Amino acid sequence: MIRHxxxxxxxxxxxxxxxxxxxxxxxxxxxxFDGKTLKGWSGDSKLWSVQDGAIxxxxxxxxxxxxxKFLIWDGQVANFHLRAKVRLIGNxxxxxxxxxxxxxxxxxxxxxxxxxxxxxxxxxxxxxxxERGRGIVALHGQKVIVDNAGDKWITxxxxxxxxxxxxxxxxxxxxxxxxxxxxxxxxxxxxxxxxHDEAGRLMKGIIALQVHRGPxxxxxxxxxxxxxxxxxxxxxxKYAPIPADAKKVPGRKPKKKPAKAKAK
Length: 264
Prior knowledge:
mainly beta
């Protein structure tokens, strides 16, 4: 039995889908943003617009958000490869949601699920965060296996944490195949995850873009491209077990969300 996580991941990707290095050169990507309008997307028009040929989300200190809000793409994804150029200005953070759910009962344009975090802290930038769920799953630079009880185990590293200028254009990518999740920044892997937690993981859902409550911010995305990948790619605990030298992550829990204001 192969017991090395990184080798299992590589073999799965090579057998189930083309290798990560080949995906970028392959045909099959479709644009899900036309560069001119927000056709195919839904969100708060006070927050989202198209500027400079890019999807633009803006918050202000004069009108702070009560909770994180999202621009939601009308389609759904399961196995896929998404890439986009992103820049972020302000002392705040953003993110790209995927395989997520539109939580209509939680507020206006509220989303929960997997998120590729876009964050001024290098160790958080490119990490996997489970919005309104399990919190931080894997930080930038970590390989993580989530077991069937929801516990998180660090099994290795993807390399040094990248230092970038968020106010400049950077390319973020998400590759989701079965229960294997890979995040990339400017062509380099930031996080690799195998999610065995059947109760907590997500296998399909929506894509959405985040503006975050807190300090004023401006996030822009362009060249947003999606490639749908074949079904499959699931790894069980039998074939992707927790290595003996893995380090268990002490209770990472999401921050308590503010209560939704009740209508008067």
